[in-house]
Amino acid sequence: MKVCKYLYQFLTTILAFTASACLQAPQRNFVILTLLLCLNFINATPAAAANLSNDLLKQPATEIKVSLGNAANELKFEPNHLELLAGKRYNLRLTNPSQLKHYFTAKDFADGIWTQKVEAGKVEIKGAIHEVELKPGAEAEWVFVPLKSGTYGLRCPIAGHTEAGMIGDIVISN
Fold this sequence. Notes:
By secondary structure, the chain is α+β, with helices and mostly antiparallel strands. The chain has helices spanning 2-20, 25-43, 46-52, 107-111, and strands at 62-68, 77-78, 81-85, 90-95, 102-105, 113-120, 123-125, 131-134, 139-146, 150-155, 167-173.
């Protein structure tokens, strides 16, 4: 167990250095992805490790659609329960058909995934994402790979939305 602890500390140190080093963006992204996968192998089961060893960027993304609210302006996620597999690539298509602004907020979930990109309109965002805001009629795609299993809370933190039932959960299993 001590070996895993020291390996984890070593890899996180390298990850921090690599993120700030002078590598070009494609090389840095490859090194960071490789290190994140190594960190996950420390606690992964053999089955999860085998899944994660695939070339994640060539893996077809499984599409999941989530609506933030609806045309009747009900405060809910549809669906409000997502089940994902660690090591599998997903394209989360978020839509907001309501006339109210909403957030897709699941910080602990976001900390346990590798985000390839978030795309909205003609804008593509890369890097760590913790929350996505969708204005009325907006759409966004979040492409990611879950790395850490667990059950994570989902909510819209706008005053009154969580209390009215705009909550859900995301389950990641190995």
